[in-house]
Structure formats: C-alpha cells, structure tokens
Fold each of these.
Amino acid sequence: MTGADNSGELLDEEVLRQAFRALSDAFDGERGGFGTAPKFPTPHNLLFLPERRPFLPDPVRWKLFEARVAADFVLTSMRDRDGKLLHRYCDGEAAIPAYDEDYAFLIWALIELYEATFDSGYLKSAFAMMDEFIKRY
C-alpha cells in the first residue's frame, strides 16, 4: 500500500501485525492505556487488541491480557466518587468528566472484551456504563 489514495484496499495481515506490535509496544501496564502522556486509555485501542488475536502467533496472544488490564484500570481508577467515568489520567489522578464518546467507546470495548474472554464482568460493566450514559446524556 503506497500513497494516500488507498480507498477500497483491504489491509493485509502484515500491516495488521505491524499495527498490533506498535500498539502493544506502547501499552502502559502501570497506568493502563497506551503511551506516556496524560491520557484517557482509549477504548479504540482496547478494541483492536482482542479483535486481532486470532491471526497472531501463540506467543503474542497474551496481549489480550493488556486489554483487560487497561479496561480494569479504567473501571477502577478513572471514576469519580459517584462512579461516573472520568476523561483523562495524569500524574496519578483521574479528572475531567467523560464525554459521550468516552462512554460509547468504553461500552463497545467492554462488549468486545466480553466476547473475547466470556468474562461476564465486562458485560455487566458495559450495561452499568450504558445506564450511566443514559442518565447523563
């Protein structure tokens, strides 16, 4: 794939493997999410990891664990006293009320994690996030 106009082209497996490796290398196991900057552990990154695991060789399937760690971090460390989702994490502190897309992507990621792991806790968390989303928006 070269050039900017690649509409209609399917990504080949090697491109997906490279993207997976880059994303995996950027995972922050201590604070969840990806990269070192202040961040919200972006659910679209969480979505990529479980979706790509079937074509990966066995030694890297453990990366699903990283998606679980990041999701668990968001669910336990990125909420306010009332349990509402927060948008970003910086210097050991979560702050800023989450936006509607934060809820939407997290709900999607939790459902994908449930489908990948069959851990019903992720599905229950997705329903709880959806209830909070409906109340808030």
Amino acid sequence: MSAARLAEARTDKAAVGIVGRTELKSLFIGCNDQLAPVWQRVVRAEDPPINVNRAAFAPTELSRLLNGYDICIDDHSCLPTAMVERCDRLKHIVFLGTGAGSYVNVGELAQRGIRVHTIKGYGDTAVAEHAIRADAGMLPRHRADGS
C-alpha cells in the first residue's frame, strides 16, 4: 500500500477513532514487515492512538487479538464471521486493499452490527493497468515450477 493511500485512510476520522468526542480503541491487525515502514511514514503524533499488531496470527486468534477494540484496521487478513462476531466491542473494520469481500463477509458482519469500510478508489489504476497488460498478453509467463 502506498503512503498516499494510508494517509487517505488515516484522514477518515470515523475510521481511525474519532466519533464526536469519544475516542475509540483501534488495532491495525496485520501490519507486516513490508507495511510497517509505510505505516511509520504516515502516522503523525496528533493522530488518535492506533495499536499495531506485527505478529502473525491464525484466524482462531481473532477474538483474543480484537477483544476490547472498537476498530480493526486490516490489510488483507482473512476475518471469518464466526471469529469476528466473538469480538466483544468491534463495530468497524477498515479494509486497506481491494476485494474486501474476499476477506470478510460484508453482509453477514453488517447484520451483526459491524461495518466494513473501504478506501474509495483504492487500487483502481493498478487494477486497470493489470487488466490491460493481461488483455494485451504483456504479463510474464510463469512455469509450473514457479520460475
């Protein structure tokens, strides 16, 4: 994710933890080694506090990780409804990528009072460029052995 997209996500105050005067507790659940430097570049001292989980986790650990949090910021971690609904305070998931429906069941979570937020326009250019290259046969070919 680009620094610009993370900055755009950060500016959605409802998503990052300010609703009226109430501060919500937030966790960036899957900040891997690739994302960590980008996250550090966009976080500002005046931002609401957001805890960051850098450790790998299994979906069965979601309720343990997210209990006590109102907001989950997610970058492509699978969040099964059966695990998410066990989280005691969770009301928002901010998805930092494309294809949120591939990682969370938006409809099921909405029925349980958990709203999934996405970043408008995220990846539009990259996805379009990829589609054009695929259509034009310009993508690299890979052999079955992965090379």
Amino acid sequence: MSNPFDRQVGGDYYKNYKIQPGLFIETNGIGWMKGEAIQHVLRMGKKGDWANAVRDAEKAKDYIDKWLHLHAPCEACQPAAKPEPTVTDSTKWSGIMDRLGLHTERNTLGDLLKGCLLGGLEAEADELRALPSRVPGITNSLNLGAFLELMEGTDAKKEADA
C-alpha cells in the first residue's frame, strides 16, 4: 500500500513540506482547532492570489479565536469584568441548569460552562469565567449543588448589605 502522505487531493500546498501538516498535527496531538489554524497559515499565499491568502488568514484567525474563547485560562484573555452577582443569581443559575439538563449532584461548574458555551449563552459563560476571582470557593470542578449554595450565600449577603 502506498503512503497516503505522498499525495494530496486538490492541490500541492501541503505535499511539498518536509513534514506534512496533517502528519505533524496528528503525531503531536495538537488538536482539531489548533491544527486547522496551522493548516490555514501554511496554506496562505500558496493558492496563487491575494484574496485566497486573506481568506486563509481569516480562517486561521477564526480557529484561533474559537480556541482562545474555549480555553482562556488567564485574566488577560478573559472578557471585561461583569457586575457583581445579583440577588437573583441562584435562581437564574438553577433555571439555566434545568434548561441544559444538568443535575446538582452529577454535574460540575465546568459542565455548566460548557453547556452555556454550546447553548449560545455567551454572557452567562463569561460571567461563570469571572466568578472564581469574585466568589471564594468557586472552581470548575465544584459540584453544581455546592455552587448553588455558594450563590445563595452571595444572594443573602447582598440582601443584608442593601
């Protein structure tokens, strides 16, 4: 059987590298989004016209933006701080968990964050990312039942301060 990396269907912009991007990406376990970004960067300018080069650059940037959105571990990568939680937060999060089919005993805060991202609840995902810096005890591995208890405590403190 011939080596499939000796050929390329639909062009030669990958085939001419000493190590083909697909082999490099798979061998090193880079992952789909970062791998797509790498492939589009390597393809820039190889299709012969400026419009295609710009399109490949935009595609690479799109994959990088998506990866950063899902994996933003640092404060510099996080969106601007949202207002402090309101007295209705525990009720709000309970309703979102119900809509996403999440359970207080079986699921974690990380599951809630993923559910918000996949469910198009960007503002809620941003708020969840910001909570660990504002509410002690919040981590992605926190059980959702414990999360609701912490949020109820935050609600009660805000009511007492008001």
Amino acid sequence: MESPQHPDRVFFLENLEKLRGRLGILGNEIRTAVLDAVQQRHDTRAALERYMRMAGSNGAVRDRLAVIAAELETIVPPDFLSRFSQSRVKLLPRYLKALKIRAERAYVYPEKDKAKESQLKARLAEFEEVANRVRLRPTREGLDFIEDVTRMIGEFKISLFAPEIKTLFPVSDKRIEKKLREFPE
C-alpha cells in the first residue's frame, strides 16, 4: 500500500455506538454463516471422495467427479472469507448442497451430467470474457454486475443439477444471456 489510510476515530466511535448491543448478534450471524458453509463444504468433499473411491476404474465417472471437485474449489476458494460478501457466504451452503446432489447423480449417470454441463459452457465463456474486462478496470458498477451474474449462474446450476432445492428467483440460459448483454462495452 502506497499511502495507507488510517481509520477516522470519530467515524469508528460513531459506528461503534450505532452497533452497540447488536455487535454480538451480528458477529454470531457471520460466524454461523461461515461455519455452515465450511461444514457443507466438508460434507460435499467427503461425498466426492466416497464416489471417487466407489467409481474405481470407471473413467467416465471419475472424469465427471473431477470436474465437480474443481467446481467445489471455485465455489469455495481458500480465500473466500476475504473475497465474498456476507450475503454470498450465506448462499454457499445451498450451492454446495446442489453440488453434492450433482456428484451423486454424476456417479450414476455421468453422461447426463456432461450433457447438462454443456448447456452452461457458452454462457460461462461469455461471463468470463465480461469478468476479465471488469477485472482490468474494476468499478463498483462492474463488480456489482459480476456479483449479480455469478448469483444467476449459481441459481441456474441449481435448476439444472438439483432442481429440488428450488432457485431463489426465476433463472434460465436466456435470462443470463440477456443480463450479459446489458453490460456496457
């Protein structure tokens, strides 16, 4: 950091006063969200490892499970606490439950999983292109846009791979495509 900014004492004390009596509650909410995400990640990882052992030398199943294991690392990267907002951390258990269901189904029907994943490929490529442009010149608007599309893609994956979880809002490939077109060049 070239010139670190020190917190304004008055601002800090004013915020501390606003939060008086609620700080413990807010801290507990954050702790609970993080622990739920970490526990669900552990459960999903354990299920993936179990299916991988059961797959033995079945290459098709092992390939699908490897793809799903890589997605697990994308959903919950090692630095998720420093990268994700509290609202996003609260959503992680849903996405991880859906991934666990996907792993179970991919173990039984790897070709179905591959077919469903192909429905995502074009949109994910478009999203990465937009996300890379935002990363080159990050703005609050661009980062919020990326967060919105990331959430839409997460919900779309739920609708494809674990529809019994139900999406939080209506989502489809067409809606994601339309949203991506809204991004200013």
